[in-house]
């Protein structure tokens, strides 16, 4: 007797809030899944919402998150600018709708904590996009920590040396401001790799950091460059450097040395390409995964970057949808995503005060940090 086929899972109804650049990745990611329907999109710019709905065959386009949540949704993807994330997430939680939010979860610690608490109280899942954790290279290093190949991390290095044009910052009014962007290279670009660093290295104890604005000072108020020393509760240490004042871009490198003495590092070069293991120094042998094909201009166009990120958005979106079906936590929860935010906020606070910041003492709201003089 052939076993009867198990019933198809219920179709989940998805809403997408914000129809800008990154929403395309969410559209493509949800569209790639079975038994998921994008029921509606919303944007404060209704014309943009309508154009997006028409382009993707989505049945409803509305101008407010309230109207979107009225569409009987199971989950909403938050693709709006950073400072609006809290408002959208709180509305979704109040409506009993699960939320997948773009990074950074928020621009203030207090805001992130309110979002996590509201979703917990409403018993809805909150996931946050850090799609680079799904790189096979990142998974390979994480596994080498867990299986003892590297062992407990003792030293880490995170280098995020990128290029941005002035046009990048002038593209939208919210970019490059403390009030609306919440920070510069740390908040918007380096947060992905800070998340990977802490995922590899563990909980943070103390941060000592400095920020400055070397290249973009005449058109942004936030930092374009930062450096920090991070100490972990395990006693491990790491350095962080991050900048958007680099040309050509050097991409990203993230290296971990474990207590076995073995090291592994991954690189993202050019920016937006898949991370690959560029150093695997284990048991006296050194190897690396093959480099990406040559000939790619290192200062890649941002639209291209976002397009290239789609495969890993799809993996994380699939993980989130599966977690909802299974009633489990997604791979990256709001609580997890708050850890990277805390680290970069501690760099800002340390730069402002000139002192190391004990992680436990980090204030819930930040005072605007001034660039280091001299
Ligand atoms: N995971 C990644 O790699 C990645 C990459 C790029 C951007 N992002 C994040 O995605 C978010 C959006 O970035 P973007 O580049 O798409 O920005 P964007 O400016 O291109 O798009 C944002 C859209 O949201 C709309 N909007 C603003 N406030 C709204 C509100 N209250 N309700 C509904 N719509 C609203 C705007 O009109 C705009 O169309 C940011 O938080 C950013 O950090 C993540």
TrEMBL record:
Entry keyword Hydrolase: no
Coiled-coil annotated spans: none
Domain GFO/IDH/MocA-like oxidoreductase: 139-262
Domain Gfo/Idh/MocA-like oxidoreductase N-terminal: from-to ranges: 12-128
InterPro entries named among the record's database cross-references: Gfo/Idh/MocA-like_OxRdtase_N (IPR000683), Gfo/Idh/MocA_Oxidoreductase (IPR052515), GFO_IDH_MocA-like_dom (IPR055170), NAD(P)-bd_dom_sf (IPR036291)
PANTHER family reported in the protein's UniProt record: D-GLUCOSIDE 3-DEHYDROGENASE, UDP-N-ACETYL-2-AMINO-2-DEOXY-D-GLUCURONATE OXIDASE
The protein's name: Gfo/Idh/MocA family oxidoreductase
Organism: Arthrobacter humicola
């Amino acid at each position: 007797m052939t076993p009867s086929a198990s019933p198809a899972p219920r179709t989940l109804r998805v809403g997408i809030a914000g129809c800008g650049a990154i929403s395309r990745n969410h559209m493509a990611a949800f569209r790639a899944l079975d038994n998921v329907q994008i029921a509606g999109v919303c944007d404060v710019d209704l014309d943009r919402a309508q154009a997006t709905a028409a382009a993707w065959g989505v049945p409803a386009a509305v101008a407010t998150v309230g109207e979107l949540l009225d569409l009987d949704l199971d989950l909403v993807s938050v693709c709006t600018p950073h400072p609006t994330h809290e408002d959208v997430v709180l509305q979704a939680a109040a409506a009993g709708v699960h939320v997948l939010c773009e990074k950074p979860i928020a621009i203030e610690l207090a805001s992130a904590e309110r979002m996590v608490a509201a979703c917990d109280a409403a018993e809805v899942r909150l996931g946050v996009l850090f799609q680079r954790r799904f790189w096979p290279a990142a998974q390979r290093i994480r596994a080498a920590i867990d299986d003892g190949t590297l062992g407990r991390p003792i030293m880490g290095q995170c280098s995020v040396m990128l290029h941005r044009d002035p046009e990048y910052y002038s593209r939208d009014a919210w970019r490059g401001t403390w009030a609306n962007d919440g920070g510069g290279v740390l908040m918007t670009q380096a947060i992905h790799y800070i998340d990977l660093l802490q995922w590899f290295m563990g909980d943070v104890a103390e941060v000592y950091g400095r920020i400055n604005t070397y290249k973009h000072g005449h058109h942004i108020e936030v930092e374009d460059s930062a450096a920090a020393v991070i100490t972990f509760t395990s006693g491990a240490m790491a350095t962080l450097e991050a900048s958007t004042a680099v040309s050509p871009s050097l991409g990203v490198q993230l290296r971990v040395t474990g207590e076995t003495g073995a090291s592994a590092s991954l690189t993202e070069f050019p920016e937006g390409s898949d991370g690959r293991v560029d150093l695997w120094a284990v048991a006296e042998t050194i190897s690396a995964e093959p480099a990406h094909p040559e000939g790619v201009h290192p200062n890649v166009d941002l639209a291209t970057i976002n397009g290239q990120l789609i495969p890993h958005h799809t993996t994380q979106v699939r993980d989130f949808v599966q977690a909802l079906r299974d009633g489990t936590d997604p791979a990256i929860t709001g609580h997890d995503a708050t850890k990277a935010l805390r680290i970069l906020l501690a760099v800002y606070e340390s730069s402002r005060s000139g002192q190391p910041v004990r992680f436990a003492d980090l204030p819930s709201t930040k005072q605007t940090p001034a660039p280091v003089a001299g």
